[in-house]
Amino acid sequence: MTTARNDLELIALTKRYGDATAVAGIDLRIAGGSYCCLLGPSGCGKTSTLRMIAGHEVPTEGHVLLSGREITPLSPAERGTAMMFQSYALFPHLSVLDNVAFSARMKGQPKTQREARARELLELVHMTPYAARLPAALSGGQQQRVALARALMMQPRVLLLDEPLSALDPFLRVRMRAELKRWHRELGMSFVHVTHSQEEALALADLVVVMNQGRIEQAGPPRAVFERPRTEFVARFIGAHNVMETPAGKVAVRCDRVLVGRGGATGEAAMPATVLDVEYQGSQVLVHLGADNRRELDAAAGPDWTAAMSDSQFHASPLNPGDRATMRWLETDVHVLEA
Questions:
Q1: Strand 190-195 to strand 35-39: parallel, antiparallel, or no bridges (unpaired)?
Q2: pTM of model > 0.85
Q3: Count of domains observed in the chain
Q4: Is the pLDDT of residue 114 over 70?
Q5: Each residue of 218-236: pLDDT tens digit?
Q6: Which of 3, 70, 203, 331 places its Cα 20 to 30 Å from the Cα of 243?
């Protein structure tokens, strides 16, 4: 049973490589049994943070505590954590069963006992029919399942996942998200999952930690982070928000709360814009807009604003690149960002 005793806590955790600071003194508590996603762009410090939790990187400063116990100086095998690497790192010459049982073999566990436990874990990840195969005979998704079973063989209290879905095709990625949620629910342990995918973090986590330049910009439940981004960086990185300058400072308005009509702006609550591009996405259409004097979409700079319209709403009165348009939104949909 998961209790508060299984909390994972990072205290002033810092990692420097020479003059470069990868992780800048972060503080974070992850409750036992949580699914936490460390989310951010490349180079933000999320993987360095995961590797320090795992014991594969030594912190320059700070502490890692698990169940209230200092684990910072301990080896990876002594910590009560297990890491599933992005590359899966399966032994090519060992069968699926032997890959899963490997850590128990190294600890000297009797063969009958370790193979019985390995078969239980293969059943959990739906890989029992493949127990005798070598990794080269498996698909990417199947290799991932074996890597997960092997990590679980160590009976960790915290499972660490380094971009576990990045190598999969989009269809399999969605299926494996559902599997990760199932495994988390059934195992009851904490998952700490590194990703650069906003969609992945929002779909999986009950705690989203957005990182930027080695710091935590915002941490909270996915709905809170999405609906109330704290800073401009979070609003832009999470996506689906427009950031606008106002006399009161910068504000965010969700793309699906922006109403777009034809013609120039009239009235105080309307903003003139020009349609730069239209992107059909099936159930919705993204209308990319620029300031009224902007005439084309610059791939490097992107649009000034985006409106997400339902398919039926858009096609009732279609817009085309070059059209003049009017943007409106409700005052209740405006969220003020911190400076």
A1: parallel
A2: yes
A3: 2
A4: yes
A5: 999 999 999 999 999 999 9
A6: 203
